[in-house]
Specification:
single chain; 200 residues; alpha/beta; seven-stranded mixed beta sheet
């Protein structure tokens, strides 16, 4: 199938989610500075990174519309990105344990004429987690490249007591907001429309 967009990410989770809604794509990972700017709010931060990732790939001469996303975990107004090392991951998980935190995922679509973005805000509540569990989870390798140090679609799911919001957004690509961007750009994806016509 002919690709209709370029995904600015090497994330297998984002690739799976795009394939789930029937969007054929190619991959070109964006490499940008993900530092939080002084005084930048978490929402502004994730929206900026999603836009910058999409524009970085467009600037290479990519002709296809470029889809990019960024996910961050927020606790008490602080951004939890990917853990630097074992100690950082255990510290993050210890802070998330036994309480609710916010997961923000922004998605952006860059075309020749514009770049548009959407934001998904979600609340995840963790059960209590012992230090031994945190350390054992690090050893699985799963937390190393995940915002907040966990993967809801992986082994980390056992820590999740409840989720309010979008499961796909917590995974890394909010499909509702992605669908809105694709539809506005006239890019085809599975949305039930063809099924409705077949039943008529």
């Amino acid at each position: 199938m002919q690709p209709v967009i370029c995904l600015a990410s090497n994330s297998p989770r984002r690739r799976e989610l795009l394939s789930q809604i029937g969007v054929s794509h190619i991959v070109m990972a964006a490499d940008i500075d993900e530092s939080v700017l002084p005084g930048e709010s978490p929402r502004t931060y994730v929206l900026r990174l999603a836009r910058e990732k999409a524009l970085a790939i467009r600037s290479t001469g990519q002709q296809l519309p470029v889809l990019a996303a960024d996910t961050t975990v927020v606790v008490d107004g602080r951004v939890f990105g990917k853990p630097r090392d074992r100690a950082d991951a255990i510290s993050m998980l210890s802070e998330l344990a036994g309480r609710a935190h916010e997961v923000l995922t922004a998605v952006a679509l860059a075309r020749a004429q514009d770049v548009n973005a959407r934001l998904s805000s979600n609340t995840v509540c963790f059960r209590r987690i012992s230090q031994e569990e945190c350390a054992a989870y690090w050893e699985t390798g799963e937390p190393r490249d995940k915002a907040g140090g966990y993967a809801i679609q992986g082994l980390g799911a056992v820590f999740v007591e409840s989720l309010s919001g979008s499961y796909s957004a917590v995974m890394g690509l909010p499909l509702f907001e992605t669908g809105e961007l694709l539809q506005a750009a006239g890019i085809q994806y599975w949305n039930g429309a063809s099924a409705g016509r077949e039943r008529a």
